[in-house]
Amino acid sequence: MTTGKIKVAIIGSGNIGTDLMIKIMRTSDVLEMGAMVGVDPNSDGLARAQRLGVAITHEGIDGLQKLPVWPEIGIVFDATSANAHKRHSEICQAAGKVIVDLTPAAIGPYVIPVVNGEDHLDAPNVNMVTCGGQATIPIVAAISRVAKGALRRDRRLDLLEVRRPRHPRQHRTSSPKRRRRASRWSVAPPRARRSSSSTRPSRR
Fold first, then answer.
1. What is the SS3 assignment for 143?
2. Are 137 and 185 in contact (CB under 8 A)?
3. DSSP run (H or E) holding 10
4. What is the pLDDT of residues 169-183, one digit of tens each?
5. How far lies 188's CA from each of 96, 119, 140, 156, 160, in Å?
6. Long-range pairs for 118-123 at CB < 8 Å and ≥24 separation?
């Protein structure tokens, strides 16, 4: 019996992969779980997938290719590591499958679904940036659209400073210097993009 949904495989049976599996099974109208892949036979994620009736393997992508469901898989979500993703991408693209990169490998184009989700529909590999990028870049894009007429022509919104909230206990135990740190996200065009990690605000 066919459901008309696209079967997917998730490589990486940790928290991220397991959470994604649950979301697909509970909420997706277009995706269907085909396989959960890990490297630890005692993984909680693999055990949960098996209880839910999802095909599993603890032999990584090599094991995935041996599963009967492999030919039916249309999309592979990679929730492993940047180093492992390169090989995963090569194998999936050779097999004609789209791979969604949830690692820092950044082989494919950066995709923020609500901002440029339709720009790379034909890309065989798409990179989901980071959780921070997915959370903040849509806000910047919305502000830019609304404030476009208010900004001077030679100016644009291209930098957002994100202050991460900490647990009250962390405030009591962390140093004042650490509490003043903030992450800065650049949203300028690729040629002008400046990458920066946590920085300390300058003193006045």
1. helix
2. yes
3. strand 6-11
4. 655 545 555 444 444
5. 33, 17, 10, 9, 10
6. 123/98
Per-residue pLDDT tens digits for 44-73: 999 999 999 999 999 999 999 999 999 999
Report DSSP state, residue 101.
Answer: E
DSSP per residue over the chain, as a string? ---SPEEEEEE--SHHHHHHHHHHHHH-SSEEEEEEE-S-TT-HHHHHHHHTT-EEESSHHHHHHHSTTGGGEEEEEE-S-HHHHHHHHHHHHHTT-EEEE-STT--S-B--HHHHTTTTTT-SEEE---HHHHHHHHHHHHHHHHHTTTS-TT----EEEEPPP--HHHHHHS-HHHHT-BEEEE-S-GGG-----SBPPPP-
Active site residues: 131
pTM of the model: 0.74
Dist CA 84 CA 60 (whole Å): 10
Tell me the pLDDT tens digit for each residue of 105-140. Answer: 999 999 999 999 899 999 999 999 988 888 888 888
How far apart, in whole angstroms, are the C-alpha atoms of residue 3 and residue 7? 10
Tokens, residue 20: 């994604």
Cα distance between residue 132 and residue 176, in whole Å: 23
